[in-house]
Amino acid sequence: MRIGTWHTVGRGAEFCVWAPARQQVEVVLESMPDRPVALARDAQGYWTGVVPEAHPGSFYRYRLDGKTDRPDPASHCQPRGVHEASCVVDHAAFEWQEADWCGIPLESMVMYELHVGTFTAEGTFDAIIPRLHHLKEVGINAIELMPVAQFPGERNWGYDGVYPYAAQWSYGGPTGLKRLVNAAHATGMAVILDVVYNHLGPEGNYLWDFGPYFTDRYRTPWGPAVNFDGPESDHVREYFLQNALLWFREYHIDALRVDAVHAIYDRSATPFLMELSRATEVYAASSGRRHLLIAESNLNDSVVIRPREQFGFGFDAQWSDDLHHALHTILTGELDGYYADFGKPEQLRQCLRRGAVYAGEYSQFRRRRHGNSPDGRPARQFVVFSQNHDQIGNRMLGERLSKLVSFEAAKLAAALVLFSPYVPLLFMGEEYAEETPFPFFVSHGDPELVEAVRRGRREEFLTFSWAGEPPDPQSPDTFASAILQWERKEGGRHAQMLSFYRELLRLRREVPALANMEKTHMSVDWLKEESVLRMERWAEGSRIMALFHLRGGSIELPAPPDTWAVLLDSSDSRWGGPSSAPPVSVGPEHHLSLSGHTAILAERT
Amino acid sequence: MRIGTWHTVGRGAEFCVWAPARQQVEVVLESMPDRPVALARDAQGYWTGVVPEAHPGSFYRYRLDGKTDRPDPASHCQPRGVHEASCVVDHAAFEWQEADWCGIPLESMVMYELHVGTFTAEGTFDAIIPRLHHLKEVGINAIELMPVAQFPGERNWGYDGVYPYAAQWSYGGPTGLKRLVNAAHATGMAVILDVVYNHLGPEGNYLWDFGPYFTDRYRTPWGPAVNFDGPESDHVREYFLQNALLWFREYHIDALRVDAVHAIYDRSATPFLMELSRATEVYAASSGRRHLLIAESNLNDSVVIRPREQFGFGFDAQWSDDLHHALHTILTGELDGYYADFGKPEQLRQCLRRGAVYAGEYSQFRRRRHGNSPDGRPARQFVVFSQNHDQIGNRMLGERLSKLVSFEAAKLAAALVLFSPYVPLLFMGEEYAEETPFPFFVSHGDPELVEAVRRGRREEFLTFSWAGEPPDPQSPDTFASAILQWERKEGGRHAQMLSFYRELLRLRREVPALANMEKTHMSVDWLKEESVLRMERWAEGSRIMALFHLRGGSIELPAPPDTWAVLLDSSDSRWGGPSSAPPVSVGPEHHLSLSGHTAILAERT
């Protein structure tokens, strides 16, 4: 039972849609409005049929019970937006040029999250392609696209998508996305796609007319929860399972980043997320390619990334917001909202050791104990970052870290993330200290909804210590303000930051103590009254010591023996360090003079 | 932090109540209404203090913010009902006479569920004591009390309790319950208590005034869900954890049967039920007694009974409704409501083999796949029954199985349950084929609530094929109709059934193939077009074959070799079998003639 519309040359298109409570379902082609084609219902409520006249590019709707015309819930293409007809796509027509592509393992991935609409001035998949070389050259080998499922209008972060199977038309639609993946693979880069399975957006969601996709048994912050465990939920699951496989099979997507799994409520004995990982594994085995699942989870529950044999969901990895928060609060001093749970140096040390701060401890923000032990989960299962779309965009003004802290502190953040044993993720532009903000933006069509979003955005920050008002999310200017200014990377601070990131990533690749996460060891401790974090990492024949001076400024430390040499010094003028101060020096008196924020030493072998 | 009110001789009573949002909490003793005693608040919102004038028997209320007087949420005693003052109890005063009692292991337990109010005409804990000898003599070694937490009025199944810490006053209160446990232990019987942690009853619940015990994030069929994973839930958990330990410590309860764990919604990384099993284990280790947790669960999810090391909740056992349903539907032909999922002979065989019918199969009633594999869970973790309060009382008229099927079929049901490898549970009176129904009854004080319950009860059965109306749940006559008629057991069919149960339980105890569940083997198959179920069980030096002729009547079967002898024949006139027919005979032509419903053969050794 292949959900959706599938074209076969010489045969027209095959239609399949689930509408269990309907008495009649017909396909109405725009080209023959007076000749609806009746579909046949099976026992489970799937309606299927072949329409010889349907060709790639044909516009169609489903007519429900002879009266209600609706776009296809599994539409692959919505050229006229979320309220209009769906369009037949011929997936077989695309010519792939990456026959032997089999993916990049998590252990060596360096991820780069980007928003298609604001990554370039053009805001398309195609416009990304010329930039891939730059990313590759910096040391990035996986781009992670924020959600591309068709959303209302042309400006949206992507979490308001209402056609999970359709690649956003204004980004370039299905073929544009394929061209991007094709080019990325040709460059040796993987493509991760952010998918939203916990809710659908507030405008243009016609799934209600087809079946019980949603439930009121649970609540999400963004609307009704998806029905993953109630009556008929087997078919709702099937809809999302097939969606995941669609991206793998037809778009050659390497990995899915599954949005907010904590908002997927599912009490069943075999949870949807477990079935998703099983289906992904089965598909990967059949395709011979590597396909990964990465969860965004605020549960701090090892169930997400435990193997299914250990009764886990079997995800390959999950985001570690904890490391971000622990680092961000120390660098910025901010303690608003959920940052209230962080800010303590010990948390940063703890998180670097185990991938999580909260593993059962009391959370002030949640007003309850939070999390369980991540012990036993390998480092490759945690994705870490000092910036991402949420941590930037959920701020009232959407400021990047580089706008909040000094240039030297921003370099420290980069180094700490990239020298950690976890899988690093950068947010677009971070590598050259881009200054454009990433504010929240939408382009809804419903005036009431627009007003509600504006109001919600204003109210969200009332309890924060920030002055002012958030920019209007509906305004095109807000969107425009987020577009990267690529010319910046060519000079000044930006170019210096870029070469710093390049060097960090080179070391991460080339130094054995950093290169292979599963075979290295690590110790982390605080020196000088919790002002300097010392991280040592070692492997067979390789040992490094990273010193992070969180407060910055000159400081004297007990020096390691003379067998150690400086590998990287953030205060070096090459990357815009304070030229007046001497670089790190290992003194004759066994004192180490750290003049900047970050120094990496390596033991001579 | 010991929640509740605790009396110490010579010191008065110590009070402790959680009321985090209150500005002031005072104890108002009835004996000194004008002198409220202020309690002191700690950082977590617990209010504590000592009141020297409070003695066992003192009535008191908490005064909240100087104006609202409320009974104690952790009251140990509510002599005047759910709306009136709480009463101080001195737990130390009771003299226990079972110093070396350490409990009965699940492997050898035979449970007997009883409702205190209708088990005897008196309806008290004390009135149960003289009956213990009868139960012991039948072969029962554990009584399971339906919930005794104080409920509104004097007639209630117990699931409307609103004082989880208070033993129902009309049953005999705290001391009555202790006398019963004391007597049971003296007789060598364990006491299991049904506790309800998923909701509180609809009348007399004043917990709302104290703290966020409830949440609207989830729904239960019986009202707001308990807040086990939201803000402040650590303290809500503590309230129920201490409740469990109260029953163990002060009442010497052997095991808790935790009601409807599927209605305990808890998304946390360390679920409440896992903490409950850990706390129980720790307490059992310290007390040196065996304390067990048994779940009522409709999740068919092995997580409930998996050890915590395997990321399970760590419960010792759970009810297997599936076996009941599989057996009941075949015997009665009923397929209403949730019975729609059953009725197939193969399900009965499957369930006897693994403890569950649904382990991922599609459920027609739930309209989705249901359950996961129970593989690896030992037989002692499944509690089985052919009757219980729910399966009788959820019927419109509350008829017992013995009223629905023939006397011979009722014997078959008993034999099938007791010869299964699982832990058997009987419902009070089942052992002598009691005829009184067990209809739903309440004695609420709120007229609107009474009407709502009546209406709900009527509406519940509208879609069923049963004619007529349910008896009025509020009527004392409905309650009275449920009271056991003990004199019945002395004669006729009742006495015959009683001796049959006695013999079944004797065999279960004495035949090695039946006695030790973990060391026996079993095979189950259907003969004669799924009319005869053959269950073989064997252990070192012992082998039995049980033949259950589900349709009843005379049937010829291929006989086992002459080395087999009849151990029990349900058609024997000793237990009212059809005297006209010959008993089971192993014929010379290697044919076995089964004239009744059930025959147990044993291999001669």
How do the helices and strands line up, and which of them pair or pack?
The structure is a homodimer of 605-residue chains.
Chain A: E1 4-8, E2 12-18, E3 25-29, E4 37-38, E5 40-41, E6 46-51, E7 59-64, E8 68-70, E9 86-87, E10 111-114, H1 116-119, H2 125-128, H3 132-138, E11 142-145, E12 149-150, E13 163-167, H4 173-186, E14 190-195, E15 214-220, E16 223-226, H5 233-251, E17 255-258, H6 272-287, E18 292-295, E19 317-319, H7 321-332, H8 345-354, E20 361-363, E21 368-370, E22 382-384, H9 389-393, H10 401-404, H11 407-419, E23 423-427, H12 447-460, H13 476-480, H14 492-510, H15 512-515, E24 521-527, E25 532-539, E26 542-549, E27 555-558, E28 564-569, E29 585-586, E30 591-594, E31 598-603
Parallel strand pairs in A: 10-11, 10-23, 11-14, 14-17, 17-18, 18-19, 19-22, 22-23
Antiparallel strand pairs in A: 1-2, 2-6, 3-4, 3-7, 5-6, 7-8, 7-9, 12-13, 15-16, 20-21, 24-25, 25-26, 26-31, 27-30, 28-31, 29-30
Helix pairs in contact in A: 5-6, 7-8, 11-14
